[in-house]
Amino acid sequence: MAKVLVLNASYEPLNITNWQRAIVLLIKGKAEQVEHNGKMIYPGMPLPTVIRMLQYISIPYKEIPLTRRNILHRDAHSCQYCGHTGDDLTLDHVLPRSRGGVDSWDNIITACVRCNVKKGNRTPKEAAMPLRKQPRRPHSGLHFEVTKYLRSGNHDEWQKYIIN
Ligand SMILES: [Zn+2]
Question: Where is the HNH nuclease domain (predicted)?
Fold first, then answer.
């Protein structure tokens, strides 16, 4: 069943909930409806797709583990050198490990086998293989979650509330 994006009072995404919980928040007056998809739950109550909390809720930053899966997801499963998508994706250290490159969000990227081999033990600059996007730590676990839903193509109304 439909998921609902919950925005903070500041319009930043806060979490993802199910529509039943979203309705409860609306009825209790804790949230307002921002977007709906036109379907009616009952007359006068459209099914929400995005709601916004009326009071600001502070949430602590949650660290996202640096894993292969998460790096692939951040990079949209595409080679950061040539844009190739496919099954033969590897992880590449931008500054090679042998030259002091560390395991970090800004030094590990997704690369296809071909580019990884071609780049070898060089920096992108030395190899004349510029990165398509500067790698960095993802915003938050929620941002990660939200982009997964967006890529499924079912929650287009969420798009405008998401940065990048
Ligand atoms: Zn490539």
Answer: 66-117
